[in-house]
């Protein structure tokens, strides 16, 4: 919807309406040429919907009389301008109004047109011409109005910029505070880390001392118990022998624990070197299997060893340590396999590596504890339930040995379904 030009409407009392009536009649004439008589009549009828139809106005004589009031004139101009814009676009409507104005300028002086006609032209039309017809005072008034408006916008912008600057300053201050806090936290963490490392070092030293101190008396106890069992210190009844045998086995387990602790400590402190030698790994596995088989047979566990000899080259390894790896993994596979289950070993060449897999159909490892499985002294809850023997050091040592050889170890497992431990060794 087009709006009226903002300037105060000129009332008939102030000026003569004759130029405005003339302008409207010229405009009606032009729109008759464009739209035809009938259509212009309809346009005018809609313009007069709420107004009284001027006396001379009738279909066939579309001329406004001299005493037509300003409101009616305005309604006529706006209806024609809107209809023309709708039908042919704003450029055409503008040129039609401009043409009518040119014609009027032939009949009246500029001041007369400026004061009585320009204020009737709707806003958005002939804007450039309107300025030309404005009086100096009117022009100054409009300029000062616009300047005040611009000043207001400028003030608003300045307020917004100041507010934003304040916010940014606050944000920067906060960032500065956070950065300082982070530096402090980092320092605290570094200190805590150093302290932990120191404690770890002391714990490791303590463990090593305890293990060393325990080894000698435990060996002494083992030797004494064996002498008692063999009757070297006097006769022993069968009933006594059973108890001494149990003590002997417990003592053996303690010796094994102490040995494992010392082994883990040597690896941890980097005091464990590799004595590398070219080795036929399949023979080494056969050898370990020979030791494992009696225990497996006792639990009715089937053991399978799959390999294609020609594929597997000699490997440069520390035989003693690698033997401990197979002993540990196979021992676990049998230990955590249910009676009647199956343990299988496979060896394959995988590019620059040989890949080993030791699979069992045992209790498996609960999913929520799998991440901890290579940690020192860790034993999963299901293992604690079914197998009381064990110290949780085996896998820690196994992983360290494999990594010392430049290999990798990992596993796949589902609780109650079994476990497969994989590891690789470089060729
Ligand atoms: P442990 O002396 O307890 O066997 P390890 O370090 O050899 O110590 O193993 C750590 C833990 O990993 C075990 O206590 C057990 O929970 C789990 N584990 C290792 N091997 C197996 C396996 N083949 N099947 C199920 N659980 C296993």
Unreliable stretches covering 5 or more consecutive residues: 1-14
| C-alpha-based Rg, rounded | 53 Å
Strand segment tally: 7
Helical percentage: 55-70%
* Rough outline: rod-shaped
The averaged pLDDT comes out at 87
Strand order of the largest sheet: 2-4-5-7-6
What's the main sheet like? 5 strands, mixed
Can you give keywords for this protein?
alpha+beta; 11% strand; 427 residues; five-stranded mixed β-sheet; two-stranded antiparallel sheet; single chain; 60% helix; binds adenosine-5'-diphosphate; disordered N terminus; 12 helices
Overview of this protein structure:
With 427 residues, the protein is α+β, with helices and mostly antiparallel strands. The chain is 60% helix and 11% strand. The chain is built from 12 helices and 7 strands. Strands 2-4-5-7-6 form a 5-stranded mixed beta sheet. A two-stranded antiparallel sheet has the order 1-3. A hairpin with a 2-residue loop joins strand 4 and strand 5. It starts with 17 loop residues before the first helix and ends with a strand. Mean pLDDT is 87; it is low at 1-14. The structure holds adenosine-5'-diphosphate. Adenosine-5'-diphosphate binds at residues 328, 332-333, 336, 360, 362-365, 373, 378-380, 383, 390-395, 419. Adenosine-5'-diphosphate (ADP) binds at residues 328, 332-333, 336, 360, 362-365, 373, 378-380, 383, 390-395, 419.
In short:
By secondary structure, the chain is of the alpha+beta class. Helix content is 60%, strand content 11%. Mean pLDDT is 87; it is low at 1-14.
